[in-house]
């Protein structure tokens, strides 16, 4: 099966001095190098616990808040944006977040080559690049092949939670997730979003632009 992997862009943004310091001095402590071999997640965190994967954590504000509020779970964040990685590394170090690790690499390759089957209790995909131009929408992350892949990495009763502020992308997400036979729509009312996830920087921007925020949560049923 072929997967379209060019679904992200390297955003141009200057790395601050603090972010650069974190990338140089904290990476060995809190990051997992990319490899074409399945991870032993229990060894990485030194315990057997539910593990949640977040794809594209941006600057890491919501990731930090979730990991701190759910200390009985492990979290792995995937991101390619170096300033965001540096920012989250500083947050991890400052708050001593022992249940969070980072991988800097393309998400699809990480999932295919590093994440064992049925090893995740959840997946978070909050405000992925919407690729709003029609000619670019084939680059959107949420495609049938990707959801089929990631569903095999989620254990029974595990979940995938997507959020976007682009209505047409929300409709596409719903269609794609609904087609996956391993998943069922939980139909959770996410209007009171604070009970589901923290507000992200991209969500705030979308709200300021008058965009509708959509959350979709699906569960693996077998």
Write a brief structural summary:
This protein is an alpha/beta fold and 222 residues long. The protein has nine helices and seven strands, in the order αααβαβαβαβαβαβαβ. A seven-stranded mixed β-sheet has the order 3-2-1-4-5-7-6, sandwiched between helices.
How many helices? 9
Taking the alpha carbons of the first and last residues, their distance comes to 22 Å
Give the strand tally.
7
Pattern of helices and strands: HHHEHEHEHEHEHEHE
SS content category: alpha/beta
Classify the helix fraction into a percent range: 25-40%
Mean pLDDT: 91
Q: Low-confidence parts lasting 5 or more residues at pLDDT below 50?
A: 1-6
Beta-strand share of residues: 15-25%
Structure characteristics:
single chain; 222 residues; 9 helices
Topology, pairings included?
Blueprint: H1 17-25, H2 27-30, H3 41-45, E1 51-55, H4 61-69, E2 74-78, H5 82-95, E3 100-103, H6 107-114, E4 120-126, H7 144-153, E5 154-164, H8 167-179, E6 183-185, H9 201-208, E7 214-220
Structural notes for this entry:
The protein has helices spanning 17-25, 27-30, 41-45, 61-69, 82-95, 107-114, 144-153, 167-179, 201-208, and strands at 51-55, 74-78, 100-103, 120-126, 154-164, 183-185, 214-220. With 222 residues, it is an alpha/beta fold. A seven-stranded mixed sheet has the order 3-2-1-4-5-7-6, sandwiched between helices. Helix 1 (17-25) crosses helix 5 and helix 4 (61-69) packs parallel to helix 5. 36% of the residues are buried. Mean pLDDT is 91; it is low at 1-6.
């Amino acid at each position: 099966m072929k997967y379209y992997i060019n679904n992200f862009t390297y955003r141009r943004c200057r790395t601050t001095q603090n972010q650069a310091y974190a990338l140089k001095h904290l990476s060995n402590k809190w990051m997992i190098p990319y490899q074409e071999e399945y991870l032993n997640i229990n060894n990485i965190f030194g315990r057997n616990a539910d593990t949640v994967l977040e794809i594209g954590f941006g600057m890491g504000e919501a990731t930090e808040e979730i990991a701190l509020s759910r200390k009985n779970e492990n979290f792995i964040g995937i991101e390619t944006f170096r300033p965001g990685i540096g920012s989250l590394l500083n947050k991890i170090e400052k708050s001593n977040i022992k249940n969070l690790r980072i991988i800097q690499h393309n998400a699809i390759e990480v999932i295919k080559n590093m994440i064992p089957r049925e090893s995740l209790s959840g997946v978070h995909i909050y405000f992925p690049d919407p690729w709003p131009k029609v000619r670019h929408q084939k680059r959107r992350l949420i495609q049938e092949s990707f959801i089929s892949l990631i569903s095999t990495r989620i254990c029974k009763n595990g979940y995938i939670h997507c959020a976007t502020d682009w209505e047409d992308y929300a409709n596409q997400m719903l269609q794609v997730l609904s087609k996956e036979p391993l998943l069922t729509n939980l139909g959770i009312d996410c209007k009171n979003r604070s009970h589901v996830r923290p507000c992200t920087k991209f969500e705030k921007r979308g709200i300021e632009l008058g965009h509708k925020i959509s959350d979709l949560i699906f569960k693996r049923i077998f």
